[in-house]
Amino acid sequence: MDPEEDNEDEIVEVSGEPHSQKIETEKVKANQYDDLIAAPRSTMDRSKLSTKKQDFQVRVNIHEGRKLLGGNIHPVCNVHVGKQSKHTRVQKSTNKPLWDEVLFFDFNCSAFDLCDEPVTIEVLNSRKIRSDSLIGAFKFDLGLVYESADHQFFHKWVLLTDPEDKESGAKGYVKISISILGPGDKLKIPPKSSSADDLVDIESNLLRPAGVQLQPATYTVKIYKAEDVPKMDTDYFEGMKRVLRMQLALDLL
Questions:
Q1: Neighbours of 73 (CB within 10 A)
Q2: Where are the extended beta strands (E) located within the chain?
Q3: Structure confidence by residue, pLDDT tens digits, 227-251
Q4: Lowest mean pLDDT segment, chosen from 101-115, 144-158, 165-179, 239-253
Q5: Which stretches within 61-215 are classed as H helix?
Q6: 15-18 contact pairs (CB < 8 A, 24+)
Q7: Which of 40, 184, 182 is nearest to 111 (CA)?
Q8: Is the CB of residue 40 less than 8 Å from the CB of residue 140?
């Protein structure tokens, strides 16, 4: 997997799954959302960073997506780091795409300048083109990663929103890991996450755009009346309860 890089603002062809099916998807400039997304920024003191040019490699691991908005979508994830753009393969007919792909971005600059480079994570529906294709986006700067332990973070969920309308709510979630490797740095292998951990990851390990808050909701269901209910076999339902309890215990293992 080595998608071709293209920094021009044009519609490009993306290679999909086997049979080399080509699907059109729109490439968006990396700085298109500069004035639209209030991105989270790092709080580190950058005055102590080196201004000497060095070689850096930024590795972006796009793990998966969850709860992507839309029906029968073919999601593809575009990643813009500075002026460089790359994309994942297309996943067909799913709101829970499993990409598990690593995209590489090389820089020759100072650590001071690197921390100002913007990162934009976009998810698009490859079945559509142009303005209709964008499902949601999330933006931050590399300083947020550089100030983390070992200049990397693992298994972070990012909240996708509409760059032009933050009030429209969540458009889905994408799990990412990012590493910044400079001279002499060693890559730390990310820990594996299980599906059971993912049940709480989205809430407890979520990056969201500045000013966007998730609103909790409580649903109350009231049953007022029942009619013509047949007489129940109490022994049968006791047996069913035991089976359900056993199945629940197995599912939790």
A1: 24
A2: 11-15, 22-26, 54-66, 75-81, 84-87, 98-109, 118-125, 134-141, 152-160, 172-181, 206-207
A3: 877 776 666 667 766 766 665 555 5
A4: 239-253
A5: 111-114, 143-146, 195-204
A6: 15/89, 16/74, 16/89, 16/90, 16/92, 16/126, 17/89, 17/90, 17/92
A7: 182
A8: yes
